[in-house]
Queue: 4 jobs
Job 1
Amino acid sequence: MKIYYWSPFFTNIATIKAVIRSAESLVKFSKKEKYNVSLIDAIGEWDEYKNIIDKKIKVIKLSKIKLKDYIPKNSFLKSRLSYIIIFFWNFFKLKSLINNDKPDFLIIHLMTSLPIFLSLFLSEDTKIILRISGLPKINLLRHLFWKIFANRIYKVTCPTKSTYDYIRKKKIFREEKMEVLCDPIIDLKEYRLKKIEKFNFEELKNKKCIIGIGRLTKQKNFELIINFFKKIFNTYPNLNLVIIGEGEKKTKLKKMSIKLGIEKRIYFLGYQKNVFKYLTRAECFILTSLWEDPGFVLVEAALAGVPIISSECPNGPKEIIQNNGFLFQNNNLNDLLIKFRDFLNTDKKEIYRNKVILKKRIKKFTLLEHYKKLNQIIN
């Protein structure tokens, strides 16, 4: 059975890992079914990941030109322009590939408008699975587009039950087309190796830290964690703030920390391949996002066993944390300060109990659990 993945990207985002691990789960765990799995390379996006992609997974390049290096990025308007470029750059290439190879399934992430539109010209032998990555904004244009093509989509998968309910209420797709399919965030083998990797950041050794991780964008709302740190700066002189991630707001956030006079105790570490060696040393992990679905770093923090303080934003945190962490009102600095004090005053036995429960709860985000559900959908 041929299964192709389509997921063009041009910045470091969590969905990249989810796509790779989803494909790997099919070749790793399938026994009765033999899956021929391929990643479609639209703009050269998979070049830098070829050394970590399972050799059983084929990467199909639509062009010899690495368009990813030339398209505009790092702002909302530039990214929208890039979507348009990618759409027309790959229109005939993708149409030709699918009609010639006739894969049984085309699993689509991120920039999904092109393969959905191409369903008008594709063989009905290829079934499209629309994999919703993150909480979608259902504006009028997207609502109409999905509604028009709903009958040409075989299945729609949602990363959380909350998002499933949200989209179901919009009545765009028939309920029998919809499924909850958790992202394959956790690779236990990879985690065991990364958590024992040598910590070589001398400046942070033996320092107490709170940590925030994510792209430095509007969604992740790092302004809130910096303002929070300013409020506790003098009360906890031995505490430092570590921010891991890259993005268009990096310069602005650094200037903000200087203006507030707290820059000497804030560490902007950029993108890190291994976040676990930082998480396992942190006093707590704080998520300030305005929205998440489900929140990859939230799952990784739970796996690392670090106490979690998270915004109660739609849609992932509440579903994952429930009563086993500290949820504050979305974008509310005062409530974040209250929940931080609650965390400090909570009994260590209760903190440990929460860690254990969370580790059990995030089992559904492992490669094996993802494979079981995806295999069920395919068959």
Note: The chain is about 40% helix and 15% strand.
Job 2
Amino acid sequence: YLTSKHVDLANSNLDDYYEVADRRSNTTVQVVLSVGAVLIGIGFLLFIACNWSAISSYSKFFIIFIGVIAFYFAGWKTEAVLPKTSRALYYLGAFLFGSGIFLIGQTFHLGGDVHNAFLFWALGIFPLAVYLKDQAVMTATIFFIFLNSTQLLLVGEYTYFVLIAIPSLYLVNHVVFQKAKWIFVCISGLFVFFTHCSFIFFEVNQFFNVLLLFVLGLVIYFRPFADYKQSMKLVGQLMFGGYGIVLTFPFIWERIFSNGTSGVLAITFAVLFASLILWLVREGSLFSIFLLCCVIFRFYTDISYDFLPKSLFFIVGGLILVVFGYWFERSRRGVA
């Protein structure tokens, strides 16, 4: 005999099942519609490209201009009835807007740097990201700003706009996106990249560049803000982990010290760094297991590649990775 408690429990399990199934269905629909929007956008651009010579310059401009407005308007009109389709139409408009920047520049021979085109693309879709509160569009905005900031290294021009963009993006994530973890990590990645490139641009010694970002990563990891505790810990791990591995190489210490001294300092740092990682592993940090694997594999590669037969080198290296993967899996599942 089923009691009311058993019936409630069964209904609760069914509700959970249908909720998960509905969520998966919505995700599938969104992916299908998004891919379809991209394909339509590519086809639209190919149509213009194939009929390039037959279409006048101003006609090309108006086709793209009207197309962007039409897709945004269609997305706005279908928001209430077909929200997934509406989102795909917005994506299509954003894709066409960015592609149109490059096509119009080529059509009217405007010239200019391709990095600035990515900046205009980011500025154009940023209001859409805020309006929709869409993490995908916001991620694209950050990515295009990142592409714009690469001119620090590729062109040798300093992008002062990024100095304003980074704190603005943090503010928008805090207020509009309700402290989204993924957006915070993406903005932080842009911040680290821009800071690193800025030091290179201003010819700061690379040893101090790497050391400063390593220390900053430790500070972020051990002193995170309460509202961003998990996000900052992840960013901090990535920073001190990546730059810490770089500091285990003697060549970075040679920027300051002599060859003999740099080797000793690199080994000393590697021992201290490995000790820190082992301490974090004992504290229950799963990501630290991955870092420890990277450190061991880095020294294994450095020491054994020139001495072992190549087949044995890869076999032993693979075994090391498998053992650490096994350890990581057991730790993640809480298996003793």
Note: The mean pLDDT is 80.
Job 3
Amino acid sequence: NRKIVVFDIPIFAYKAVEDSKLIHVANVLAQFLDNDEDGVVDNTTIHNQLKANKSFIFLWKTTAERDAFVPPSGYSYYDIDSGSVHVAWHSSHTGTFDKSLECIWSFVTENGHAVSFPATFSGQAMSEISSAMDTARGGTFQSPPANYPAGAWFTNSETTCNYSCQVSKYNFWILSSMLGANDNRLTEIQNEWT
């Protein structure tokens, strides 16, 4: 029933979603698009691709809301469970991790980076990021294997996460590690990211 537009990218929310969560998601998207906070998008190629894809985000509170949503034809979107948005995590990096960081990064990566720079960021085999991921997983697997080779440091086992999804997750783990977002999370993430 409402939206916030961040650099021409709309974020919609169902009525039951708290305003604080909608505003938080908008702030995270703004940070990813304008990391130096000068009021100008940092990478216009990615931004233009997001706009060309008619990309948007929507927040939902119940699975009924999520399942009832019918996206308009020709639009790219990412849906976020508002229950996974934890605004307070940002001030302490303790408690329940704010999953919106991963969701919004995946949205920007899949609809922006991967399309704008496919040789580097494509979710398909042979891009630079997928080759790095295959090294991290100890081999090339279209679906997560039942057991990863010894020495693998990215071991996501979600069988619903296809190869492109795995690349997106790997990309997020790199970024979140570099930015310190994984501090205090070892016991929570070591089964997937060592």
Note: The radius of gyration is 17 Å.
Job 4
Amino acid sequence: MVLGSGLPPSVGHLIELALEEDLGRGDVTSEAIFDEEQVARAVILGKSDLVLSGTDVAAAVFRAVSPAITVSPLLRDGAAVRPGTEVLRLEGPVRALLSAERTALNFLQRLSGVATMARAFTVAVAGTGARVVDTRKTAPGFRFLDKRAVRHGGGANHRADLGSGVLIKDNHVAAAGGVAAAIRRARAAAPHTLRLEVEVTTLDELREALGEDAEVILLDNMSPQGVREAVALLPPRGDRRRPLIEVSGGITLETVRAYAEAGADLISTGALTHSVRAADLSLEIERT
């Protein structure tokens, strides 16, 4: 399968699965109406305000169905799209265009939805110094694409997987017997190249984490006022002992700025990927 530059083989496998799901038994409607030789031109249009992501994936879907399809991207991923804006132009066998339509749009709509949500969150905290980051709450198999879409929207990425960072969560703390015990065990065995982050839910747990010199502290499910109280316990800015502060848990577009203004360095929210609304795009065949 011909993939765009920068797309890993896992995306090719994902496209193959999606096409097998939708096209495994053929497209009986298009095959009944059109000859193999009939060609057409088409355009993919944005139908609402959105931030674009996944044009290279959509192009790979069309080319996987038929190498005879010519795909011409008109905008780059990360572009702001207004209703009625042309995103991609296509030309090729009409059967193949119609057979690939739904799968290509499924990728493009989901990923643009993620990018659009990420842009909304980043705009909401503009000027505060806080960064909005994603989580691992991605659609199975979509981790690379979902996280890339977050970047297209102006957000940043948290861990890519369980091996890319030490993050001591509440269940680690419970099983280890406390915040301090979990940090000591992790620091003794984890690679020295990875920063150590620990999740806390109370100010007492925060004090434990500060006593163990945790490099990043995740304040989980605290109110903005609770975050202010937690930040007040930290060493002053500029002190090398001051950890980065991440906040997470139930943060919405309506509340995210309050958390940023409370002193968070990082704001992580699964809403960027786990409950995103698909962006509105459609494919239109041009009448001949």
Note: The radius of gyration is 23 Å.
